[in-house]
Amino acid sequence: MVEDWPSLHALLLGRFGLGAADWLALFGHFLMLSLLAVGGAITTAPDMQRYLVGERRWMGEGEFSASVALAQAAPGPNVLFVAVLGYNVGGLAGALAAMVGTLLPSTVLALRASHWNTRHARSLVVRSLHAGLAPITIGLLLATGWILFEPTAGDWPSAVLALATIALMLRTRVTTLLPIACGAVAGALGWVG
Is 80 a member of any domain? Predict the structure, then answer.
């Protein structure tokens, strides 16, 4: 039974055997994306997909979408998907590189910005920033939704379920747990892929 467990090397370093330069590149890319994550780390998922799937070829589109979906379904902060992506690329070291890269600059920037925002809450600059960042956040979230939906685009039951969910969320005040439960049942019954 123990032979089925991944080796310590695979657990720590991942399946690709990344070197220090690769971990530094992963860390640097997620560090840069952290500074662009207006509205949360999930808004940078399209560029994460471009980098990990398209440019580096460390994972496939389906694996990327499954990693994000798994992390989003798990209890805890939404940023956990970054750790899952990093782990799938480089084991625990990859998860650490991706998470520290994502959390370090945004945490420092958020602390500094909140102190500045508190002191200048009534200024025109702060009010303008709040008004200007809202549409950017919405656009980034729409791009993320498109990237995550793309692998199932040819599957019409999935498309119908997604459109019904969007319509339900826009038109009613139904809890988000209802479409999640419907999607889980549809998946368990094999109606959607």
Answer: yes
